[in-house]
From TrEMBL:
Native species: Herbiconiux moechotypicola
Name of this chain's protein: LLM class flavin-dependent oxidoreductase
UniProt domain Luciferase-like: residue ranges: 5-321
Top-level taxon in the UniProt lineage: Bacteria
Coiled coil: none
Keyword hit for Membrane: no
Pfam family, one: Bac_luciferase
Keywords: Flavoprotein, FMN, Monooxygenase, Oxidoreductase
PANTHER family: ALKANESULFONATE MONOOXYGENASE, ALKANESULFONATE MONOOXYGENASE-RELATED
InterPro entries per record: Luciferase-like_dom, Luciferase-like_sf, SsuD_RutA_monooxygenase
């Protein structure tokens, strides 16, 4: 049995994870996320993870225009659940480590040690610049800042008083109590570059990534494993998988086609600009631009099909890539989550991947 962790990437943003007009209604409300968290716990998933987004992508679908704050959401979900891990996300450019240290320690008391933290070292360009943050920082500088941020927060979680004189943070006799329950919470970070993965391997517990195909998932996972071995070999790999189940493979493909028919090119253009995939020129928003004809709302790395097909493909990638954890997103976080919890993950566990209670 390979010990796999299974998590749910929560729909805290309006529209969920698909920029399309043809998707199930996801309002990004706390009420809906509470239902999803309790359902995830009932199926025995290991953790929930919520993102931190401070500005949406607009367009007709108003994708991510409504977004819950991650740490506050995590505290609420921690109080409302009993066993499932509750992981939140913070951006190191936006929140001082001393503030986060106190908030996470409080969340840890609420959850009795079920708290985890996903940090964002770079990215979120539009979210940062609207607040006048991060304008002149390239990736290497952002990782230097993130390194100091992690050092400070860990010190505040373990030491009575902290003095720190860094490039980005200066603390003098800084105190933070209470401490987290059970010691330093598990910390992960999304990274795909060698520089980013090396940062995670040296300072955190796990790297979060996704792929655009089966081969890209496997190659990224194996590269992360290699970088982990070069830096102490204690890095976990977590891959984000979009799953779209159907009774048959053909049924799942019909769902994909329907979502793509309603694709929101404005939101997709804003997303591409934020992540540097296209020019920041406003004309990139024009749906008639060359190249947008083939734009899709569904990621090319989506795993779709019958429960048996999805389980087979996931098992192949987890095994070949030596992946430690799978984090799932989906169009409908009630019906699709039920299929995932009742049919797909039990098939994975039966084949030797994981330990969740759903088995």
């Amino acid at each position: 049995m390979k010990d796999i962790e299974y998590g749910i990437f929560m729909p805290v943003g309006s529209g969920g994870w698909i920029p399309s007009a043809n998707i199930p209604e996801l309002d990004g409300s706390y009420e809906y996320n509470l239902e999803v968290a309790r359902l995830s716990e009932r199926f025995g998933f290991d953790f929930t993870l919520s993102q931190a987004v401070w500005r949406g992508y607009g367009g007709p679908s108003k994708h991510f225009d409504v977004n819950l704050e991650s740490l506050v959401t995590g505290a609420g979900l921690a109080q409302a659940t009993q066993d499932i891990g509750v992981w939140s996300t913070v951006n190191t450019a936006m929140m001082h480590p001393a503030i986060v240290a106190k908030m996470v320690a409080t969340q840890s008391q609420i959850s009795n040690g079920r708290t985890g933290l996903n940090i964002v070292a770079g990215g979120n360009r539009v979210s940062e610049t609207q607040m006048g943050l991060g304008r002149d920082l390239d990736s290497s500088v952002k990782y230097r800042r993130a390194t100091e941020w992690v050092e400070v927060v860990k010190a505040l979680w373990t030491e009575k008083t902290v003095d720190y004189d860094g490039e980005f943070f200066q603390l003098e006799d800084c105190q933070s109590d209470p401490k987290p329950v059970g010691g330093i919470p598990q910390m992960i970070c999304a990274a795909t570059s060698d520089t980013g993965m090396a940062f995670v391997a040296k300072h955190l517990d796990g790297v979060l990534f996704e792929g655009t195909s089966r081969d890209s998932v496997v190659s990224t996972a194996l590269r992360a494993r290699r970088i982990s071995q070069e830096n102490g070999d204690n890095l976990k790999t977590y891959c984000v998988f979009m799953i779209i189940p159907g009774e048959t493979d053909a049924d799942a493909q019909k769902r994909i086609d329907y979502y793509n028919e309603g694709r929101d090119l404005i939101a997709l253009g804003n997303m591409a600009r934020e992540w540097g995939a296209v020019s920041h020129d406003a004309t990139a928003l024009n749906p008639d631009n060359e190249g947008w004809a083939d734009a899709t709302a569904i990621s090319t790395g989506t795993v779709a099909g019958s429960p048996e097909t999805i389980a087979e493909q996931l098992a192949d990638m987890i095994d070949t890539g030596d992946i430690d954890g799978a984090v799932f997103i989906m169009p409908d976080f009630v019906d699709d989550l039920t299929v995932l919890g009742e049919q797909i993950v039990p098939l994975l566990v039966k084949d030797g991947f994981g330990r969740v209670a759903a088995a």
